[in-house]
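Aim 2, interim progress. The first record below pairs a target sequence with its structure tokens.
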Amino acid sequence: MNLSDLKRNAYMLRGSDAKRGYMRWWHSFQGICPTTQETRTFFVEYSILNPALGTSQPILGQHPYYKRHGLKPSYLCIKAGVFPEPGDSGLQLRAYYPLTSLQVAQDPFYMQFEDCVYSENRISGSIDISDEVARHRSLMTDAGSFIWDLEVHKAVACHTGYIANAFFTAVHALESFWHGEGIRTFFRGTVILNGVTYEVAPETSYGYADKHWGRSYNQPWLQFASGHLISEKTGRELKHSALAIDGCCPKFLFFPMRRRILMQLTYTGEDFEYHFGRPLTLSRCKWKVKETNKRFIWHFKAQNRTSVVRISGSCSKKQMMPLLYESPDGKVSDIPLWEGGNATGTIELYRRIGGSLELIDRLQFENGLCAYQRS
């Protein structure tokens, strides 16, 4: 439901999880270059791996020295960049910092290392990677520069219920937990990408912000979201509305169960939820992902006691890129994680009335965040 929960969005790795765990805070948004009117979709991610193993230097899991000595990765990381457009391959920059540089306050949550700052209402920082540094494959980074300074207003949240509470986190009921504190987020500020300034305005940022944490990343990785929804009924862009879908891998007594998805559609302030974190809703979800030579195509159907939703969306591969992630055990998957920020598609939303379905609205969505990695 649309329920803010800043405790779930805060720093939370403790005990053994701090020696084998990760947290990542993701932000994506659009900016416009005032001189050329070019629009690009950017991303900034703050992440922490295995903080209890940290030293005064970042321990890089892909570095030959640390691999040879069997050391698990431990560092703070900023990942920032821009998704590709036709004729442009995009950019993925990564900078690493030691855990000793981290400053954290919990209430309200605030995190800073070097010049990189994260809070619930502001993010800022910079990355500058030279060609020489980018040649080191263990750093998993391109060359380039990225500076960001953004106000953040998280307008719609997705709270997944008991499945991500303290008990189920402690017993590792999921490989990776998710909290969507800002499935519709308004950003305001500037981004400077390789010397070019982009302005980010709330009404055109179409922003998204969430957090994942756990002992490993979900595989398959499945994510789909959009805060740019247009009503067929009125022809207008909807306010206080957003779609968010996240895949998860439940476990019982450490044995993996059937893959599930967590879904919320907030339609003009009304929440339609379809996930097993709300058992009384009796939700059922089906989905499939198709990959062609040129596109990824997603289909979702979800239903509960009161409503049904059907979603179809796609994104061109020319507007997606394989993002690189290192798991807490130091492994990097050979299977690419494709991610993009310009998915488009349709949503049909129905309400159950007696034994029939009544169409609430058909929606078009644009500027959708999409990610997929097969198992």
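The second target in this work package is listed in the same format:
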Amino acid sequence: MKALVYDGVETLGFRDVPDPAPGAGEHLIRVAAVGICGSDMHAYLGHDARRPAPLILGHEAAGTIIGGSHDGMRVTINPLVSCLTCPACKAGRENLCPDRQIISMPPREGAFAQYVAMPMRNLVAIPDGVPMEKAALAEPLAVSWHAARLAIAALHPAMDRRAIVIGGGAIGLAAALALTAMDIADVTIVEPNAGRRAFLADQCGQVAVAAAAGTAPIVIDAVGFGATRATASAIAEPGGVIAHVGLGDDGPGLDIRRATLQEITFIGTYTYTAQDFKDTAAAIFDGWLGPLDWVEHRALSGGAKAFKDLRAGAVAAPKIVLDPWS
């Protein structure tokens, strides 16, 4: 099969690799659409030791099961494979499983390829009429759905239901959509890139500003750099909540003194539970998250150029989705 392989820092190769061999309980999936995630970019830049070269990246995917009793089923893929037996898994908190695996990290190759193998329990059927590229958004949307759910659950009921999201990429936009779907009516996205800010306003119907100009009870940091943590610390209202879903760096920025004195809740939020993923997929299929027509489509064969363009800040769309067959 053809695959886009991470070969080293800022180096990707499109070439033939062996087809995946499904294990017990797994299915072979013909990938139809796969998105580029911020974590793929971190690996591309050499900032993620968990993803050593050579490796097939990519974990936001949808496709069709090939062979077996479910041959032809259109599915979106939950890339997080958990053990099912640990206390976290039994409590429905699969994202905290100590033995969790995710495609695009060893030992599981990713979905920037024509085929990938996954357990049946990680697959959610796609209804007829839902495009594959829209279904492939279930993974990044589930990350934000989980973050929004945790933030709202931690918010005191007496506080206003307003939110500021830092970062207008796919996770930030998805967080704004999830918050809106969860009845947070007043949501503002902070995005310094003018082109992306215009895209968010014109194509996605979002309120997007260059810099935070006020405060909010809920702040979601969808970037995760020291500077954005400092901003989140400054704009979270007393008694409010910061949900930190970005993984930009591990530098300083969080104002622990203010968080303590103002009883601001800080939540580190990672991926999603299996139920979050199913709920997000259902929200996509039912149209709760809007048309989701804000992706840019490219061929997997041009994936290296897509990464370069993202690196250069030359992509206005919050998400690039690749087609392995074009």
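Residues 143-268 form a domain with the Rossmann fold fold (CATH 3.40.50.720). This observation will shape the mutagenesis plan for the next reporting period.
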